[in-house]
Structure formats: structure tokens, C-alpha cells
Design a protein that fits this description.
InterPro entries: Cys-rich_flank_reg_C (IPR000483), Leu-rich_rpt (IPR001611), Leu-rich_rpt_typical-subtyp (IPR003591), LRR_dom_sf (IPR032675), TIR_dom (IPR000157), TLR3_TMD (IPR041015), Toll-like_receptor (IPR017241), Toll_tir_struct_dom_sf (IPR035897). It is found in: Membrane. One of its GO terms (cellular component) is plasma membrane. Belongs to the Toll-like receptor family. The chain is α/β, with parallel strands linked by helices. Among the domains are: about 200 residues, Leucine-rich repeat, LRR (right-handed beta-alpha superhelix), CATH 3.80.10; about 25 residues; about 80 residues, Rossmann fold. The chain is elongated, with a radius of gyration of 51 Å. Bound molecules: 2-acetamido-2-deoxy-beta-D-glucopyranose (12 copies). The site of one 2-acetamido-2-deoxy-beta-D-glucopyranose (NAG) has 3 residues, from loops.
Length: about 850
């Protein structure tokens, strides 16, 4: 809801005729100003002048200043309750010509004069509760359009608020809590032209009703006399006064009406009364035939009374009753005779909760031929065994709902409900039923849809036949009910082909067979929380994990919270394509398989709170988070590092899904720098920048290493490499020996060597010229003087058959070496 705090630019008029007050704390929305609880002494004068509704209740106003209010001339609703207003200023309605609702309850208005409400003809609602009214003249006469007048708790000693007929539009009149002891014949004659339908006269010290006192209220439909102390025959006289009236609804709560007799309601026989409330009257007896006048009654409440005996005459005459409330209405050990309810042919609902019944007999409920709902919760103290006779009296009723919650039942015998062929809902919650269900208990419940056996102190055991009699079941609740394991074969749920809700929670079940649930193709809701299913999904189990969710292809809600689960098999959820709501809170899950949720294409809500999850990997969560509307993942010990959480924080900050407690429940556990800080404060930027930096780092360090390696290699082995390189290049390019004929060669070989190697040449090569008759060409010996060295080299190489390299390190360093190599016609 949009709420604007009004910031005031106005100024306090110091010299004007009135002294207003700034409405600093007022909230103004849609032409409505709420200035309640502001300790105001004056009505603020600086609110928008186009207000239609102003609330100045719960302040310290002494007057409703007409001069200030005049600024808000469009007001329709003025709430000024809980102040110290002593008078209504004359001219109020001149200043507020559109006023329709005026609430001035809990003030100190005393004298109400005729001129005070003059011009208030538009007023429809006037609440003057808790003032100290003293009417001077006929102050209400101008209120021609008033529909609701509340003058409760004003110390008035009469209901006569005017002499002449007036308030022709009045529909509701409240006179509760005044000092009215007697209703005189003419006390309502001032209303004989109006159409009052609702009259509240609660908490009056009423002693006497004079004949004809209610006659002017011809259209009265609803009369409330709660807490009005009963004096002898008051209700009887009231009934007489209401004879022939339009009364439909009579509330007589808490009037100390301790007994009713066959004459108490006699006057009401000429009415069409449909609803009567007689609760909390301490009533202990109902005389035979007391209600026989109320043939049109449909709702009767007798809650909170103290009856000790209901007989077959108690309810005679109530042939149209549809609902009878008897909660806490009977004292302990009270008697309900056979056929007590027989007159209630049309009764549809009977509420007998919190009533200690000891004697349900074969005919207690006989004759309730329209009964649809029977509630006996917290009742039936003595009834520990339900037999085929307990509810036999309901065999002729079209009963649809039977509430036996906390009815102290210990044993269901065979055919316990066999007569209840129309029963659709049976509640046996919170009892002490302790037995093996054979299936015979529920025989005859041919229409049953909802069976609730929850909270039976874990004393019920199931057999394959347990539910064979109730194949129509749609909803079966077994929470905190089952004793021992569920590893019965075949599955007890096999007959329940229409089941859509199964609650097996809080049972400590640890193990059951893979096909316990597999036949429940229609199942929509499965509750398995608070069991012990961790072993079912353990991969180290002797037979591997049990896939107990197979076949539940229509499942939409699955609750597996608090099962001690520490792993989920990769394909555990593979058949759950309809699942919308998955809850796994309170387990000890830490790592999840990639894609474990990826078959859950319909998932809308995921709850993984209170696990041991440290990281939220993309591969596990991205498929499922994409379509999610609610995620609950709080209270896990998150590891706030780029690897573990970066992707998730990014999702969290951009998602449209609802993430309850986003700021408070997602707390980092590690690393120490983030300990106890909200995950949302994790700085994802650092992770984003890391990516290019990493690449850059790898690239540059590789380059440096390669360069270093190359440099070192070249430095120490470069000559070798160059040599082999040349050899390889020459071989591949296929240089051949240039064969130009023998005659062209002057030398057998041209010898290339570094100058430093000359000694070696002298010692090892030159002797060969003698011994083997070789002719070598040596640069410094055979070059023609006067020609350039380059020319000589080229010339002499041509004239040599072969070229001999004296390959040494020094040669390769020699700048001429490259030249030789380049001009070398063939590898030598
Ligand atoms: C204000 O008025 C608008 C339109 O009349 C309505 O939608 C909105 O709910 C109102 N707000 C409040 C707080 O009443
Ligand atoms: C009421 O008055 C305020 C300012 O005084 C103005 O912002 C607002 O639009 C007016 N509302 C209407 C319905 O005239
Ligand atoms: C009384 O209210 C009706 C509509 O409720 C209206 O037409 C009529 O003018 C009002 N009468 C006076 C006197 O304001
Ligand atoms: C008048 O005000 C009182 C006190 O706020 C309230 O209990 C009562 O219901 C109001 N009367 C009507 C008719 O609304
Ligand atoms: C009500 O009280 C006034 C005085 O306040 C008294 O004159 C009048 O007689 C009393 N009316 C009844 C019916 O007691
Ligand atoms: C009320 O019951 C009494 C007996 O308890 C009986 O004498 C009397 O006739 C009954 N009155 C009516 C109106 O039935
Ligand atoms: C009760 O209802 C009937 C039928 O609707 C009607 O004829 C009769 O006048 C009503 N009685 C009173 C007192 O309103
Ligand atoms: C209740 O069961 C007994 C046998 O256990 C049988 O004799 C009796 O007829 C049954 N009563 C009803 C009402 O079915
Ligand atoms: C059960 O309901 C059917 C119709 O739904 C009705 O015909 C049948 O009479 C009812 N059974 C009893 C015992 O009232
Ligand atoms: C059955 O009774 C219990 C206890 O009074 C109550 O909480 C529950 O709502 C009732 N069930 C129905 C369906 O009325
Ligand atoms: C799932 O529900 C649909 C529609 O109700 C139904 O046709 C289908 O047979 C159900 N699947 C199984 C396995 O029962
Ligand atoms: C998301 O929902 C759409 C339709 O609502 C569906 O087609 C799609 O398969 C879903 N994607 C995932 C990953 O669940």
C-alpha cells in the first residue's frame, strides 16, 4: 500500500482567528487523512483541502473546531472518537455539508441541543457511544437520512430519545449499556415512522417490559439482549411483545436464563424466527416442549450451558431446525435419552464437541433423517471401543462428515462404521487407536473420500488388506500414527487407485519396498517429512538406492523434510515431471549430483533450508532455478568463494523469483573474511574480473617461459640447430650436386673453416693433399689477390667439386658463415 508522509510547506497562521495545528504526523492517501494517535490538541489546518475522510481519533481534542473543519468542506467521514470533546459546535454540518458519517464515541459530550445537528440531513451514521448525553429538546430530529444511531453507554434512563416521530430512515439503533430498567409503552413511539431492523440492547438492567412497548418497531428483525440480566419472566414477556413481529434473529446470550419452560417462548409462535442464540446462560434444564413454538427456527445455539438430561421431548417442535450447537452444553455424565433428536427431521448439522458422552446407545441419533455433519470431537469419554452398534443409529442418516477427533477411541471393531454409506469424510485424529488394521473396520464406507487417522500415538499397523474396503479414498492421513516399518508386500496402498493425498509424515519409517507407492498414479500430494529415509537413498546400500518415487507421475507436492538424507541418487526424481513443490529442508545434504533436479520441469517452489550445502553449483541448480517462483535455501553454511557461490549470488541478485529471507537467512560460513555476513554482500565483481586475468596470466607466463627456453637453447646449442636446420632445408628442397663436368673443377674440395680452426686444418687436412693427392682450396692460400673476398669465395666454390665445412662452434659464430651457407650449392 502506498502511503505518503505529508511534508508540510504550510505556515502556522499566527494572527488568524483560529489556531490550527500542523498535521506533521498525518498520513494522507487518496484524499484520506489519518491523524490518529498524534496527541493533537487541535485539528490540523494544513491538510489538502480536498479530503473526503479525516481520522482524528485517539487525540486530545476538546472541540471539533468548525472554523478549521470548514477548510475540508468535502469531508464525508469524520472520525473523532477517543478525545475530550465536550460539545458539538452548532453549524458543524453547515461547515461540512457532505458529511455522512460522524464518529464521536468515547468523548465527553453532554448537552446535545437541537441546533447542534441542524443541517445534518445528509448524515447516515452517528456514533455517540460512551459519552454522557443529556438530550435537550429533540436533537436527532434533523437527521432525516440517518440509518444508524449508536447511543450505547451514555447513562440514558430511557429509550425515548424524542417526543415526536422522527428518524424515518433509521435501520439500526444501539442502546446497549445504558441505565434502562423499564420499557414503557411509548418509549419507542418516536420511531413509529422509521424502519428499525436491528435493535441492540445488550447489558441493560432491564426489569420490566410494559405491554406494547415494542409495537412501534414493526419491522424489527434482529434483537440483541446479551448480558441483559434476566429478571423473572423477562424472556417470556419479550416473546409476548414480539408476537406477530418480523423478528428473525434473537440473541439472548449470557442472560442467566437458567431454565426455560413450555411457556417461555410461547409468544414467538406467531413469528418467523429463524435463529436463536441461548449460549452461555448456565441453563440446566429445558422443560418438555419448551421449543415447540419455534417451528420456523433453523439455527439454535445452546453452547456453554449445563444440561444434565436431554429427553425426547426437549426438542419437540423444532422440525425445521438445520443446525444445533451443543458444544460444552452438557455437564459430565449427562444423559441423552434414546430418540432425543428424533423431532429434528431436517437437522443437517449437530455439534456435540467437548461434551463428555457416556452412553451412545443404539438409538441416540435415531431419527436424524437429514443429518449430514456430526461432530463429536473431544467427546465420548467412556467410549473406547467403536463397535458395529455405536453409530448404528445413524444408518438412516445421509451422514457425510463425522468428526471423532480426540474422542478417546482405542479400538475400532469390524464394521464399526458399516451403516454410514454416504459418509465422505471421517476424522479419527488424535485418538489412541492401537491395532492392526485388517480392512474390516472400514467395511461399508462405500462413499468415503477422506480418512484421517493422524496422531494416533504411533500404534497402528498396516497389512496388505488394510484399505481394501475403501477404494474410493482420495485423501489418507497417517501422520504420527504408524507403528513399525512399512515393508509389507503387497503394498497396503495398492487398492487406493484414486488416492491423491497421502500423509505418512512423523512416523519414523526407515525402510519400505520400492513399490509401496508405485501404484499411486493419481497421487498429487505426498508427505514423508520427519521419517528416517536416509538409508533408502544411500548409494552404498547392498542393493543400491531404492527408487521409491517411481511411477508417481502426477505428483505435484512432495515433502521430504527432516529425513536425515545425506544424498539423493541422480535419478531419484526422474518421473516427477508434474512436481511443483519440493521440500527437502532439515536434512544433511551437502553435495548434489549434477542434473539431479533437471527432470522437474514443472517445479515452482524448492525448499532446501537447514542442510549442509556449502556451494550452489550451476550444473545442479541452474536447470531448476530457471522456472522457480519461490526458493528457500537459507540457513545453510555457505562457502562464499567464487567457485562455490559466485553463480548463485548472481542469480540471487537478478532473479524475479521470491526468495524469502533473502537478506537474513543466507549467511556465509567460510571463508573467515565473509564469516557471518550475508551472501548477498559477496562481491561477485572480483570473480568476474578474475576470468580475463587468469587467461592473461597463463598467456604471459607461457610466453616468458618459451622465450627463456628459446634464448637458453640458442645460447648454448644454437649452432647445432642452425646446422641441422640447413641440412633439413637443403634435403627437403632437394638441392643436388651441380654436375658441370669434371674439367671445370680445379679443386677437389673447398674448405670452409673459422680462422681459429686453421691449426686443425693444417694438421689434419693439408697432409691429405700429399698422401691422397687431393686438391683443397683454402681461402687465405688460394684466393687470387686483388679480387674481393666475396667474389673469390663464389669463384673458388664453383671450381671445387665438394665443399668441406669444418663445423665448429666458432665457425657458426663467424659472420661469413651465413654467406657460405647461402652460397653452398649442396650440403657437403
Ligand atoms: C487509492 O485509490 C486507487 C484508485 O482509486 C486505488 O486503486 C488504491 O487502492 C487506493 N489506495 C488506498 C490506500 O486506498
Ligand atoms: C487533492 O489535492 C492535492 C493537493 O492539495 C492534489 O495533489 C490532488 O491531486 C487532489 N486530488 C484530487 C482528486 O483532486
Ligand atoms: C437521503 O439520501 C438519499 C440517498 O441515499 C438522497 O437521495 C437524499 O437526497 C438524501 N436526503 C437528504 C435530505 O439529504
Ligand atoms: C460505535 O463505536 C463503538 C466503539 O468504537 C463500536 O464498538 C460500535 O460498533 C460502533 N457502532 C456502530 C453502529 O458501528
Ligand atoms: C430519567 O432521569 C431524569 C432525570 O435525569 C428523570 O427526570 C426521569 O424521570 C427519568 N426517567 C425515568 C424513566 O426514570
Ligand atoms: C406446560 O407444562 C405444564 C406441566 O409441566 C402443563 O400443565 C401445562 O399445560 C403446559 N402448558 C402448555 C402451554 O403446554
Ligand atoms: C411468516 O412467513 C409466512 C410465509 O412466508 C408469512 O405468510 C407470514 O406473514 C410471516 N409471519 C410474520 C409474522 O412475518
Ligand atoms: C454386529 O456384529 C455382531 C457380530 O459381531 C452381529 O451379531 C450383529 O448383528 C451386528 N450388528 C449390526 C447392527 O450389524
Ligand atoms: C445417500 O445419498 C444418496 C444420494 O446421494 C441417497 O439417494 C441415499 O438415500 C443416501 N443414503 C442415505 C442413507 O440417506
Ligand atoms: C474436527 O474437530 C476438531 C477439534 O474440534 C477441529 O479442530 C477440526 O477442525 C474439525 N474438523 C472438521 C472438518 O470440522
Ligand atoms: C495422471 O493423471 C492423468 C489425468 O488425471 C491420468 O490420465 C493419468 O492416467 C495419471 N497417471 C497415472 C500414472 O495414473
Ligand atoms: C519452464 O517452463 C516452461 C513452461 O512453463 C517449460 O516449457 C520449460 O520446460 C520449463 N523449463 C525448465 C527448465 O523447467
Amino acid at each position: 500500500m502506498w502511503r505518503a508522509l505529508l511534508i508540510l510547506g504550510g505556515f502556522l497562521p499566527l494572527c488568524s482567528g483560529y489556531s490550527g495545528q500542523r498535521g506533521v504526523g498525518c498520513r494522507v492517501v487518496n484524499q484520506t487523512a489519518d491523524c490518529s494517535h498524534q496527541n493533537l490538541l487541535q485539528i490540523p489546518d494544513d491538510l489538502p483541502s480536498n479530503l473526503t475522510s479525516l481520522d482524528v481519533s485517539h487525540n486530545r481534542l476538546r472541540t471539533l473546531n468548525v472554523a478549521v473543519l470548514g477548510r475540508y468542506w468535502g469531508l464525508r467521514l469524520l472520525q473523532a472518537g477517543y478525545n475530550n470533546v465536550r460539545t458539538l459546535e452548532a453549524g458543524l454540518c453547515l461547515a461540512l455539508p457532505h458529511l455522512t458519517q460522524l464518529h464521536v464515541q468515547h468523548n465527553e459530550i453532554r448537552n446535545l441541543r437541537e441546533q447542534d445537528l441542524l443541517n445534518c440531513s445528509k448524515l447516515m451514521e452517528l456514533n455517540l457511544t460512551s459519552n454522557r448525553l443529556k438530550l435537550i429538546g429533540e436533537p436527532f430530529r434533523p437527521l432525516q437520512n440517518l440509518t444508524s444511531l449508536d447511543v450505547s453507554v451514555n447513562g440514558l434512563n430511557s429509550t425515548r430519545l424524542g417526543k415526536q416521530p422522527q428518524l424515518r430512515s433509521l435501520e439500526q439503533l444501539s442502546l446497549s449499556g445504558n441505565k434502562i430498567f423499564i420499557l414503557q409503552k411509548d418509549d419507542f413511539s418516536w420511531l413509529n415512522q422509521s424502519s428499525v431492523r436491528v435493535l441492540r440492547m445488550a447489558s441493560l438492567p432491564l426489569r420490566e417490559l410494559n405491554p406494547g412497548c415494542l409495537k412501534p418497531l414493526r419491522e424489527l428483525e434482529e434483537l440483541v439482549l446479551d448480558r441483559t440480566k434476566q429478571s423473572p419472566h423477562l424472556v417470556e414477556n419479550l416473546s409476548r411483545e414480539l408476537a406477530g413481529s418480523a423478528i428473525r434473529w434473537l440473541s439472548l446470550q449470557n442472560m442467566q436464563l437458567v431454565s426455560v419452560t413450555n411457556t417461555t417462548f410461547m409468544g414467538l409462535q406467531d413469528t418467523n424466527l429463524t435463529s436463536m442464540d441461548l449460549s452461555h446462560n448456565g441453563m440446566s434444564s429445558i422443560g418438555s416442549g419448551s421449543f415447540r413454538w419455534l417451528h420456523t427456527l433453523e439455527d439454535l445455539s445452546l453452547q456453554g450451558n449445563s444440561f444434565y438430561h436431554l429427553t425426547k421431548d426437549t426438542f419437540t417442535g423444532l422440525g425445521n431446525l438445520k443446525s444445533l450447537k451443543l458444544q460444552r452444553a452438557l455437564v459430565n455424565n449427562a444423559l441423552i435419552d434414546d430418540y432425543t433428536f428424533q423431532p429434528l427431521k431436517r437437522l443437517e448439522s449437530l455439534w456435540l464437541d467437548e461434551t463428555k458422552l457416556h452412553n451412545l446407545s443404539a438409538h441416540t441419533f435415531s431419527g436424524l433423517s437429514s443429518l449430514q455433519n456430526l461432530s463429536l470431537s473431544w467427546s465420548l469419554a467412556g467410549l473406547s471401543t467403536v463397535t458395529n452398534s455405536t453409530f448404528a443409529s445413524l444408518a438412516d442418516s445421509p451422514l457425510r462428515m463425522l468428526n471423532l477427533t480426540a474422542a478417546n477411541i482405542k479400538l475400532l471393531r469390524d464394521d464399526a462404521f458399516s451403516g454410514l454409506r454416504n459418509l465422505t469424510r471421517l476424522y479419527l485424529t488424535d485418538n489412541f487407536i492401537s491395532q492392526v488394521l485388517t480392512g474390516a473396520e472400514f467395511r461399508g464406507l462405500v462413499s468415503i473420500q477422506e480418512l484421517c487417522l493422524s496422531f494416533n500415538k504411533q500404534k497402528i499397523q498396516l497389512r496388505p488388506s488394510s484399505f481394501v474396503s475403501v477404494p474410493t479414498l482420495k485423501s489418507l492421513l497417517l501422520r504420527g500414527t504408524l507403528l513399525g516399518q512399512l515393508d509389507v508386500e503387497p503394498s497396503p496402498f495398492l487398492p487406493l487407485q484414486e488416492l491423491s493425498l497421502l500423509d505418512l509424515s512423523n512416523n519414523n519409517i526407515a525402510i519400505f519396498s520400492a513399490n509401496l507407492l508405485s501404484s499411486l498414479g493419481q497421487l498429487k500430494v505426498l508427505k514423508l517429512q520427519h521419517n528416517n529415509l536416509a538409508d533408502m537413498w544411500k548409494s552404498v546400500a547392498p542393493k543400491g538406492p531404492t527408487f521409491f518415487l517411481q511411477g508417481l507421475e502426477n505428483l505435484t507436492v512432495l515433502e521430504l523434510d527432516y529425513n536425515g538424507l545425506d544424498e539423493i541418487p541422480a535419478h531419484a526424481f526422474s518421473s516427477l515431471r508434474q512436481l511443483q513443490d519440493l521440500s527437502l529442508a532439515g536434512n544433511v545434504l551437502k553435495f548434489l549430483h549434477d542434473g539431479v533436479f533437471s527432470d522437474l520441469v514443472s517445479l515452482r517452489s524448492l525448499d532446501l533450508r537447514k542442510n549442509h550445502i556449502t556451494s550452489v553449483p550451476q550444473a545442479v541448480f541452474q536447470p531448476v532455478l530457471r522456472n522457480l517462483t519461490v526458493l528457500r535455501l537459507g540457513q545453510n553454511p555457505f562457502d562464499c568463494t567464487c567457485d562455490s557461490i559466485f553463480w548463485f549470488v548472481d542469480w540471487l541478485n537478478t532473479t524475479n523469483a521470491s526468495v524469502p529471507q533473502r537478506d537474513s537467512a543466507y549467511i556465509c560460513n567460510t571463508p573467515p573474511a565473509y564469516f557471518n555476513k550475508s551472501v548477498t554482500r559477496f562481491n561477485g565483481l572480483s570473480c568476474k574480473d578474475m576470468t580475463p586475468f587468469q587467461t592473461l596470466f597463463v598467456l604471459s607466463s607461457t610466453t616468458v617461459l618459451v622465450l627463456m627456453g628459446t634464448a637458453l637453447l640458442l645460447r648454448f646449442q644454437g649452432w647445432r640447430i642452425q646446422f641441422y636446420w640447413k641440412v633439413v632445408v637443403s634435403r627437403t628442397l632437394g638441392f643436388r650436386e651441380v654436375d658441370l663436368g669434371e674439367e671445370r673443377f680445379l679443386y677437389d674440395a673447398y674448405v670452409i673453416h673459422a680462422p681459429e680452426d686453421r691449426k686443425w686444418v693444417d694438421r689434419h687436412l693439408l697432409p691429405l693433399e700429399e698422401e691422397e693427392n687431393f686438391g683443397f682450396c683454402l681461402e687465405d692460400r688460394d684466393f687470387t689477390p686483388g679480387t674481393s673476398r666475396l667474389e673469390s669465395i663464389v669463384e673458388k666454390m664453383r671450381q671445387s667439386r665438394k665443399i668441406v665445412f669444418i663445423v665448429t662452434e666458432t665457425l657458426l659464430k663467424d659472420p661469413w658463415c651465413t654467406l657460405y651457407v647461402r652460397h653452398c650449392p649442396s650440403p657437403c
